[in-house]
Amino acid sequence: MSGRRLAAGAVAASGLGAMAAGWVMISGPQLSLRDAGPLPPVQGTVAGGLALASPPQSIRGPGRFKAHVVPVAATVDGVLAVPEEPDVGGWWALGAAPGASRGTVLVAGHVDTRESGLGTFALLHDLPLGARVVLTGADGRAYAYRITARRTYRQDALPADLFNRDGAPRLALITCAGRYDQAAGRYLENLVLYGKPTAKDRLRAVH
Fold first, then answer.
1. What total of structural domains would you count in the chain?
2. Is residue 132 assigned to a domain?
3. Which end of the chain is more exposed for a tag (fewer CB within 10 A), N or C?
């Protein structure tokens, strides 16, 4: 059973008001950064020997999947500080920027909140393989990715390579999944969708 269906079942069984004592994913997906390794400065598209990184401002995909995106970092506890709003994604600002020649562009968002119910990132549970996702930067440049894989991890077992800029260029979209633990105040798993840049990944500027 998918994490989305588990979340929906919890809503139907207990109601949104009683679903959580606080934020669902209180400080965002429980992404431990302790083992991520050293993180160099953000690097984006390279032109003329200069790094021209532009942070993503929005993300969109099939159907109603569309969200504003803001840069985020980690809390003092080593947890990714995802925006509280369920329709806003957090871009890991020490990872790769859209258009980078290497590394992971990581964007995470709440699956739901006590006040607002299911959010935009809950739609990740239904996003099919092959779906086209577009990130648009603050400079108006847009980059397209195709979703190629989906994985579910325990929240304490996310791959460390999600947080660095080594390896082939890719997109990672993250939200919560699995059972909600009332005592711990969080979901027990994270859903990760992986995407690869399309053959012609930079699109016309979007306004």
1. 1
2. yes
3. C
Any domain includes 42: no
- Cβ atoms of residues 66 and 22 within 8 Å: no
For residue 53, what pLDDT is reported? 67
Residue-level length of the chain = 207
- The whole-number pLDDT of residue 62 equals 95
What is the rounded distance in angstroms from the CA atom of residue 126 to the CA atom of residue 106? 19
Token look-up 């925006």 returns 83
Residue 109 lies in a domain: yes
Q: Collect all residues with Cβ–Cβ distance below 8 Å to 11 and sequence separation of at least 6.
A: 19, 112, 117, 118
Q: Measure the CA–CA gap between 3 and 130, rounded to whole angstroms.
A: 20
User: Any idea what the CATH number is for the domain that residue 63 is in?
Assistant: 2.40.260.10
The answer to whether the Cα torsion of 86, 24, 160, 152 is positive or negative is negative
Among residues 17, 152, 172, the alpha carbon closest in space to that of 90 is found at 172
pLDDT bracket for residue 153 (50, 70, 90): very high
In whole angstroms, what is the distance from residue 177 CA to residue 15 CA? 18
Residue 1 has pLDDT above 80, yes or no: no
pTM (two decimals): 0.75
Pairwise pLDDT comparison (199 vs 204), residue with the higher score: 199
Contact between 57 and 69 under an 8 Å Cβ cutoff? The reply is yes
Taking the C-alpha atoms of residue 68 and residue 4, their distance in angstroms, rounded to an integer, is: 21
Residues 168-186: tens digit of each pLDDT: 999 999 999 998 888 877 8
pLDDT at position 20 over 70: no
